[in-house]
Amino acid sequence: MSVLPHQTPVRPLRWPGLALARHPDLAFWLSFALLNGLLFLPLYLFNRETSSFLPVQRAAGQPLSAIARELLLWRENQDIFRLSLELTLLAALWVNVRWLWLGRRPRVFRALVTVVYVLALSYTIYESIFLSLYQTEPVFYAQYRQTVEGVQYVVQHLSWPWTVYAGGAVVVVALTAVVLRLTQRLIGGTPPQRLSRRTRLASLALAMWAATALVIGAPLASPQAAVSSLAFKLQQNVAASLALRDRIAVFDSRAPQLAYDYSQYDLQRKPDVYLIFIESYGSVLYKRPDWRKSYEALLGQLEQELAGGGWRVASALSESPTWGGGSWMAYTSALFGLRIDSHPEYLFLLDEYQDVAYPGLGRYLQSQGYYSLFVSSISKQLGESDLQKYVNFYGADDWLTFGRLGYQGPRYGWGPAPPDQFVLWQVEQQVVATLDQPKFIFTLTQNSHYPWVPQPELADDWRTLNQPAEDPSAPLPDQIPAQAKRRNYMNAVTYQLRFLTDFILKNGRDNAVYVLIGDHQPQQVSRRADGFETPIHVISRDAGMVQSLQDYGFVDGLAVADMTPAMRHEGLYSLLVRTLLANYGQEGASLPPYLPNGIVLDVPDVEGE
User: Fold this and answer.
1) Each residue's pLDDT tens digit, 153-189
2) Are 40 and 80 in contact (CB under 8 A)?
3) CA–CA dist 582, 591 (Å, integer)
4) For residues 274-303, b (16+ Cβ closer than 10 Å) or e, as one string?
5) 3-state secondary structure of 21
6) Averaged pLDDT, 415-438
7) Structural domains of the chain, with CATH
8) Helices 85-96 + 230-249 axis angle, to 10
């Protein structure tokens, strides 16, 4: 093999039966195609259940111009047959600019290409995770702390065997080796002068296609773009990060004080209020034919049982501020009447309201003589200072954690945690039943958290669940087939709704109001097109109170027909206060305004009464 004086010989990259060094054009294009396709592979793998491998599936009657537009500019399908602007331009420069072939320049240029490529691949993995699992755009400022804390939690609290981490390390090392080898083969592996004229022209054509997309203003930062650009993605990410930082910086602490000044509004009667967020309870249940049939059949059965016990139900869909995760943002938005859709906003508020009380739902009910009890059942134990920080933030009279539940039985799923059925009954018997004042109870269920296996059994007597036993083994999420995930999710939702119905029927007092609401859509088994809506049910024996919710878009019963959300999570606070006052306040008294959009960080959005 001939080598120019300034070049270091490169051993041929051998494939079975083929020495690519003898075929320079094939070696160049194969290396380019593998490197380029690898940049789009993560997003395809995350969405393979809803994407086709080929870029375009022509529909009957679809014009050729539409197909060309999908191929060359923009398409929804998450395939790998797209083009990286940076890799394409760098490859075309290498092939066509002779100045790069001289002296030490090939090594410098190869190093440049390798650095750019590693950055692009790292970014696309990060982007794919947040676009696919959380349906949110990648924003460094929003996701840095969330990622760091999430990784720490996974390492500390998911009992994965060491082989999982070892396997992950092997994959990273192998991928790094492949990337380095392919960039070495692409840049410098074959002297450019050995490449054919057709390869040079083809590389120029691809570069012109990429440059055209740039010139015409195609959305190169979008994952749907046929030509993708790391530089544009970074620019968009940095701009969004700075905008979020500035949005937090202008927070006006007067806004919640003005919007939620309920000091003049008093309740004459005080029903117990249970606010129960159901983990991963999403409107996607209505949006898959098989799920909808099973789900509506379940709702019909449970509605009959509740009606037989004298309970009335009103239901709607509510738009969550988050998707697939970030439960703390969903329920804090509801409790505070403030839209929180990024982790930095939550952390800012958590620090801001330590010495100053936020006028949230729990504190308003406290001002009316309620005892405010928060429950967290996951077995992760917070330190005293951390727990006190949450108590200060939410204004709880007491915060019941796993260590005080007296649970010795098997723990399930994420966290892990005891059966939700045991938790709710234990809280009722251990704390609620001993109080002689109205109660506000807040909790988030755990057993319907992804990956939804294993699930506890619904017991006739909840006390039998507290039998010492080993925690059930759970398969790794990636080892669960797609159809099994769907079945597991439906089973988890069924468990949640059945045990909550059983609890209400056996324990519910005449003056109790139960608000059951989903925190966000389930990841893995739903997609962005399913929206951010989750079901909300208000259950009470007070038929008048339940019926009054129809003025706000709720419908009678557990099921809804219209998939348009009637409300948003951040509107729940003002809606509950207004509804409670309308039905249990002084007759004829004025009511506070309903804020369907809550407030933003700087300006209250107040609609008329």
Assistant:
1) 555 555 566 676 777 788 888 888 888 888 888 887 7
2) yes
3) 7
4) bbbbbbbbbbbbbbbeebeeebbebbeebb
5) helix
6) 94
7) 14-57+64-244 (no CATH), 250-259+268-584 (3.40.720.10)
8) 140
